[in-house]
Write a structure and sequence with these properties.
Layout: E1 2-4, H1 21-31, E2 41-43, H2 49-52, H3 58-67, E3 74-75, E4 81-82, H4 86-104, E5 113-117, H5 138-147, E6 155-159, H6 166-172, E7 178-185, E8 203-208, H7 214-232, E9 236-241, H8 258-275, E10 280-284, H9 290-304
Helix pairs in contact: 1-9, 4-5, 7-8, 8-9
Length: about 300
């Protein structure tokens, strides 16, 4: 199932900003492929304040609601801006992940996999601060929502965005119910994600030096990341699907190809089938080359829904 909403196109960070509506348009264009004609499309609902405040301080949530402009734009930091459509877009993005999680646990579900084509991204938003293009941490909101379900005791969050998800790590570093595994370029914004950052044994960082490609990516995941997920035996896998480690991306210096994302997605689906009755929910994070976004979205979603259960 695909979760998205037109409101996510109305978030306008400003002229020349890399996190533009064209990003989501490219992703949606990729999903129009005949390869995905059998996938159900669902409108993303609005996340509730209660859902947001499971992972974000109530003062932070209130400040974002208060900052939402009626016209023009407002900057929350040098990189993170809000336009009149930004608040609804961010609420729909988080709501998409929540709804996708509910869908993969539904008794009558055909596929226990879902992809959320949404923006703005979320993984830099910490418990207390929006940052790095991110307002609310959609995947973290989804993880907390899942853990509120009686049948979920462990959630694994997989993050292959080229930038380390400092917000997700910040939110869950002391929560052993959540495993966070991230591959990312280092050094690079936001400057976190060293292998020595391990939380309470639930944080696994796989920093990759600039210039790394598919071989180094596969070695890190095969040798460390995937075995950690297998040992954790999650009840649900969530994916922060950033495609900015692609060789064409203008904001970083890794050299992945679409096939590298397809390979890792296939491995994650196999782990979901082994431990989670196939339950895996992926949500768009970064990716700033429109060509790469189209190619990688197609590769990721095709692998995600192969042999759906």
């Amino acid at each position: 199932m695909i979760f998205t909403h037109a409101a996510c196109l109305a978030h306008e960070p400003g002229p020349g900003h890399p996190e533009s509506p064209a990003r989501l348009a490219a992703v949606i264009d990729a999903l129009v492929s005949p390869d995905f004609s059998n996938l159900r499309r669902q409108q993303a609902p609005l996340a509730t304040r209660e859902q947001l405040e499971r992972v974000h301080d109530s003062a932070m949530v209130a400040s974002i609601f208060h900052a939402s402009p009626r016209d023009g734009s407002v900057r929350l930091d040098p990189d993170t801006a809000m336009s009149p459509g930004s608040l609804e877009a961010a609420l729909r993005a988080a709501g998409a992940v929540v709804a996708a999680i509910d869908s993969v646990f539904a008794d009558d579900v055909v596929s226990r996999r879902a992809f959320c084509a949404v923006r703005p991204p979320g993984h830099h938003a910490t418990a207390h601060v929006p940052m790095g293009f991110c307002l609310f941490n959609s995947v973290a909101v989804g993880a907390a929502h899942a853990l509120a379900r009686a049948e979920v005791e462990r959630v694994a969050i997989i993050d292959f965005d080229v930038h380390h998800g400092n917000g997700t790590q910040d939110i869950f570093a002391s929560d052993p119910r959540v495993l966070y595994v991230s591959s990312h370029q280092s050094p690079l914004y936001p400057g976190t994600g060293a292998a020595s950052e391990q939380g309470v044994g639930n944080i696994v960082n796989l920093p990759l030096p600039p210039g790394s490609g598919g071989r180094e990516f596969a070695r890190a995941w095969s040798g460390i990341g995937l075995p950690a997920i297998n040992s954790f035996a999650p009840d649900l896998i969530l994916v922060s699907a950033g495609f900015d480690a692609h060789r064409l991306d203008p904001l970083a210096n890794l050299n992945l190809e679409a096939g590298d994302y397809a390979w890792l997605t296939t491995e994650l689906v196999a782990l979901a089938d082994r431990h989670c009755a196939g339950r895996i929910v992926s949500a768009l994070e970064g990716g700033y080359s429109l060509t790469a976004l189209r190619e990688c979205t197609h590769a990721h979603v095709a692998a995600l829904f192969t042999a759906s259960v």
